[in-house]
Amino acid sequence: MLRRKHSRLTSRTVPLTFAPSAFKAVALAVAFPRTIASNRSMADSEFAATQWWQTGVIYQIYPRSFQDTPSPSGLADGVGDLPGITARLDYLVSLGIDAIWISPFYPSPMADFGYDVANYTGVDPLFGTLADFDTLLATAHAKGLRVILDFVPNHTSDQHPWFLESRSSRDNEKRDWYLWHDPTQPGDDWQPAKQRIPNNWMSNFGGSAWEWDQHTEQFYLHSFLKQQPDLNWRNPKVRAAIYSAMCFWLDRGVDGFRMDVLWLLVKDEFYRNNPPNPQDLASTLPVFTADQPETHVIVAEMRTLLDSYGDALSENAGAPGPDSRTRASTETTTPNSPHPTPGRVLIGEIYLPLPELVRYYGQPAENTPQLRGANLPFNFHLIQTQWQAEAIAQIIRTYESLLPSGAWPNYVLGNHDQSRLATRVGPQQARLAAMLLLTLRGTPTLYYGDELGMQDIPIAPNQVQDPAEKNDPGKGRGRDPERSPMLWVDAPNAGFTTPTATPWLPLQQDWQTINAATQQRNPKSMLSLYNKLLALRRRHDTLHSGGITDVVAEGNILRYRRTGLPDGHSTDFQILLNFGAETATTLCAPGTVILTTILDGEGSLTGNPDGTSSTITIESGEGLLIALD
Ligand code: NOJ
User: Fold this and answer.
1) How many domains does the chain have?
2) Distance 583 CA to ligand 1 centre (A)
C-alpha cells in the first residue's frame, strides 16, 4: 500500500505549442527517425564516467543578460558583461553547477549579438577586456568552475578583416576563404546579374542565402544574416586559421568549446539545389547545405586539437603554455598527438534526427576504442518532442540504443534560441522537467534563469532587438522573449543593472517574486528544487555516472531506473514523473522518497515491508525521486 502522504498541486498549465525559431526550422526540415528502440541494456558501464564534463552539469550564460556592471566612469549601459559574470560566480557555485558556457563576447558589430565575430581572439569592449576575461577564468577555476567558450566557426562578421580582404578583389589571397559564386547564365529574359542567384539555398533567417557584391560582381553565401558570410571550410588555410584561434583560448586555459552550428560547416561542392520539402512547399530540405560527410573530418580535427591539451583546471593553466600556438600553425591542419590525460570538451550545436546526431561522436581512433568526434553533440530532442510521457520515453530509449559504444549522452532543455522551458511546458511541468533533466543518464545543460522558472517576456514591436524577428516579423522567429535579463533581487532592475540604467531588454514582469534572492529564502521555490536536485546528483554516483534501465511510459507516467555502478556500493533510484493533468497511480518497489518536485513528502516509504511493490499516487505534474532499498 501507499506509504507516502498525499500532496496537493495547483492546476497544470497546458503546454504551449513550440514556436519554431530560425534553426528549429532547419532541424525539422529533416524527417524524424522512426527507429525502434532496441533491448540493449542502457547501463553502459563499459566506459565509466571519468571526465568532469561527464559527471558535471553545464550552465549556459547569455552574457548580455546575466549581470551588468558599471564602467570605470560609473555608468552602466544595461548590457551584461564579463566582470558581471565574475561577480556572480559564487551564486553559480552555490547553485551546484560545474561549468559555465558563455555565449560569444568577441569583438562584433552585434548584427546577431556576437554570433557575427569580427575578431576571434579578443573581447568586445561592450563586455570588457581580455584582462577581464583572464580574471573571470582564473576566478572560476579557483572556485572549481569550468569555463566553456562559444566558438563560431561557420561564419564571421562581414567586418572581419578576413572578409574585408576577401571581398576587396577576385584575386585577393583570401578570396577563397569564403564561398563566392558567379551568377547563373542569363536566360531569355536577360535578368540583371545580381538577380541570377546561384541556386535555391535559403538563409536560416529567411530569404536567399546569397548576397550580391557589386564591387566584384559575384555572390557570397551566408547561411544566416548577410552580415555573417560563411567561411569556406574546404580551404585548409581557413581550417588552420580557426584552429589557431582555438589555441589562443586553449592556451589561456579555457575548458572547451561549444561549436556553433557544427553540422552546417560544409556545403555541397557542386552547389546543387536543395530539394523541395514535401511537407512545406515554401521551404526546401537542407540536403546539400547541412550534415555533409566532410564535416566529420573537421570535427575529428577539432577533437584532436582539444585532446592535445590536458585538464586546464588541474594544470592550473592561466597563461599561454610553452607550446602555445604551435599546435595549429597556419601551414598544417593536422594538430598534434593526444595529451596523456586530455581534459577539454568539444560540444557541437547540432539539430539533427537522432541517427544522424549520434554520428557526430565520431569513429574510434585506430587501435583504440576512443571515439574521435565531438564529446557532446548537443541533444535537443527533449525540446523538440511533444511534452508527453510516451514521446519522451521513446526519445530516451531510441537515443540510448543508438549511442555508439563509448559515447556519453547529454540532454538540453533550453537555450537562447528556444522559447523558455517554463513557457513551453508551464510552471508546474517545468519542475518535473528539472527532475527529468537532472536524473537522466548523461550531461545536462541548463539555460540561465530556468532555475528560477523564468518565462518568455512579451516584446512589443518597438522593443524588438533580434534580427531573426526584424527580418521576418510576426512569425514567432524572434528570440528576445527568452533572452531577458537575469532576475537577481527584489530591487529596481532586479539587480541586473544599476537602478537608473535601462536594461537592453525588458525584465520579466513578476521579477519582484521570481528573483534569485527571494527564491533562496523560500524552501519550496523552483530554485530550492534545482539546488536539491543538483546536490543529489553530485552526491550520488548513480545519478551522475550510473546506468539507466526500464524507461517506460505508463499512461501519463514516465518511469525509469538509474542503476548503480558495478562496485555494488551505490544506491539505485526509481524516477516517476506524472506528465498528465490528473493524479495517477503506479506500482513502486520498496524504497524512500528522497525528493518530490513539489518539495513535500520526502522521507515517505514506498513498497511493502515484505519486499513487494505497492501502489503509489503521483499528483499531476509531480515528479518523485526514490532511493530503492
Ligand atoms: C546558432 C546560435 O545559437 C544562434 O543564436 C545564432 O543566431 C546562429 N547560430 C548564427 O550564428
Assistant:
1) 2
2) 40
Burial grade of 287 (CB within 10 A; 0-12, 13-18, 19 or more): middle
Q: Looking at the structure, do residues 261 and 309 belong to the same domain, yes or no?
A: yes
- Per-residue pLDDT, 117: 98
Do 170 and 149 reside in the same domain of the chain? no
Phi, psi of 218 (to 5 degrees): -140, 165
Report CA(114)–ligand 1 centroid distance (Å).
9
By C-alpha distance, which of 7, 43, 12 is closest to 432?
A: 12
Q: Could you tell me if the CB of 255 is within 6 A of ligand 1?
A: no
Q: Mark the ranges of the chain whose per-residue pLDDT is less than 50.
A: 1-46, 317-326, 329-333
Same domain for 148 and 167: no
Query: In sequence order, what E strands does 69-225 have?
Result: 99-102, 146-151, 180-181, 210-213, 218-221
- Look up 349 and say whether it is catalytic: yes
Residue 548 lies in a domain: no
Considering the domain architecture, whether residues 133 and 179 belong to the same structural domain is answered as no
Q: N- to C-terminal Cα distance for the chain?
A: 16
**Active-site annotation holder among 44, 251, 260, 451:** 260
Distance 101 CA to ligand 1 centre (A): 14
Q: How far does the centroid of ligand 1 lie from the alpha carbon of residue 29, in Å?
A: 17
Q: Is 417 close to ligand 1, i.e. is its CB under 6 Å away? A: yes
Domain endpoint, select from 471, 504, 534:
534
CB of 152 closer than 6 angstroms to any ligand 1 atom: yes
**Based on the domain organization, do 63 and 179 belong to the same domain?**
no
The reported pLDDT for the residue numbered 336 is 64
Alpha helices (H) in 477-539, listed in sequence order: 511-514, 516-521, 526-539
Q: Domain range spanning residue 385?
A: 52-158+234-534
Residues 188 and 210 in one domain: yes
- CATH number for the domain spanning 174: value is 3.90.400.10
Cα 546 from chain centroid (whole Å): 23
Same structural domain, 422 and 505: yes
- What CATH number is associated with residue 306? 3.20.20.80
117 lines ligand 1 (CB under 6 A): no
- Whether 542 is in a domain gets the answer no
Is residue 112 lining ligand 1, measured as CB closer than 6 Å?
Answer: yes
Going by CA atoms, what residue is nearest to atom 5 of ligand 1?
A: 417
Spot the catalytic one: 150, 211, 291, 349: 349
Decide which of 467, 500, 534 is a domain's last residue: 534
**pTM for this model (two decimals):** 0.92
Active site residue 171: no
Domain membership flag for residue 297: yes
341-378 per-position pLDDT tens digit? 889 999 999 999 999 999 999 999 887 888 999 999 99
Q: Is 115 in the pocket of ligand 1 (CB under 6 A)?
A: yes
Beta carbons within 8 Å of 568's beta carbon, 6+ residues apart: none
498 burial via Cβ count (<10 Å: 0-12, 13-18, 19+): middle
Ligand 1: residue of 110, 260, 264, 482 to mutate (most ligand atoms within 8 A of CB) is 260
Confirm or reject: Cβ of 469 under 6 Å from ligand 1: no
What confidence score (pLDDT) does residue 345 get? 98
Does 180 share its domain with 133? no
Are 290 and 204 within 8 A, CB to CB?
no
The per-residue pLDDT for 335 is 55
In the block, residue with C-alpha cell 512579451: 458
Mutate which of 110, 112, 222, 418 to test ligand 1's pocket (most atoms within 8 Å of Cβ)?
112
Question: How much is the pLDDT for 20?
Answer: 34
Residue 627 lies in a domain: no
